[in-house]
Amino acid sequence: MLLVDAEPGGQAALAAALAEAGFEVLLVSGALAALEALADGGMAPQMVIASVELPDGDGFSLCGQVRADPRTAHLPVVLLAKREEDFHRDLAGGVGADDYLAQPADARDVVALARLKAGRCTGDASFDANTEQLPLTDVSRALLAGVRSGRVVMSEGQGWFAFRHGLVVDAVFNGERGSLAFRRMLCFGGGDYALVLGPELHKGSFSMDRPYLCETVLQGLERFDALRARGLPLASRLTVDFARLAEVLASLPEDVGEVVRLFDGRRTLRAMLLECPFPEAVSYEASTRLFALGVLVPACLVEERERARCGATVPGFFEPEPSVEAVPVDAEGARAPAPRVDGAVEPFTLVGSTQPPVILDFPKKSPGVPSVAGGADVAVRSDDAGV
């Protein structure tokens, strides 16, 4: 990677992020030094990342000179601007830049673009990637930081999302369309995908910018990932213990029925999260809370109960066994029975063998806020971050 930046601080931070991602970085501080490095008889870099403001020129002129040289014309060039001007986007497109990011650019966005484009030809319109190497959260954040348009298409017809000039404008996933589909793709989409660059001219079904993606949607996904690392397996098949539900029903939020009704012993937890109208982090935390209270139980327990009572073979519903033990703890961290004060059940702590505890509690619906079940796309903007 050839990194052209005159500011030592920004240069060092970006170079460190690229090096940590596995790239070798050549640092230069001006346009002339960059052209000398490119004219050297050694191996050409796989990508050029240049600041727009340089002491001996500018990044736009440098990009034009890179394109004019047949030996370097194929190199991807990403321009970083410390101050965004209205004409910058048009100028970046005019000189053939592959993308333009306004600084302070997030180093993670630059690394994501480098993983997509390094070693490719500048005219390529399609890039293949995998969620193990480049998660959808990283690529979506990077694409919204830039100025290009196109869509990300998941393999095997899982779904896609379209972006245009820094906005996500449409998404389809698991039979849903809109912002709910986009959020669930970030949660559950996996495997190979393709980034296809090109004009997105259709109107779209919603509009989401990068600040909202980072400050609301991705924060909710971070909470979901934390629960997923220490909570119930997504392959769990749970059913309802109605006797226990009757005991604690008075202490539960009124909307808990939207969660409980989806557990029939046959759906996996993943299928339930995809069907539930609430944001994924909220649904996952509510499910774990209900499991800790004993309202949700593994379907295999019901199977054993029915087998003992009827003496018949009952199909198994639960694979695999839960990976954690849900127990209440006292102030010193020791196991203790769940305290009940005036009929209320205190919050539980989910205790794993090696992970720190996660305090679980239900979200409380604010007065005057319409129920999430009334429309997923309407409520997503207020609940995306979870609790």
From TrEMBL:
Segments forming domain Response regulatory: 1-118
InterPro entries hit by this protein: Bact_response_regulator, CheY-like_superfamily, Sig_transdc_resp-reg_receiver
Keywords: Phosphoprotein
One annotated GO biological process: phosphorelay signal transduction system
Protein name, UniProt field: Phosphate regulon transcriptional regulatory protein PhoB (SphR)
Organism: Pseudomyxococcus hansupus
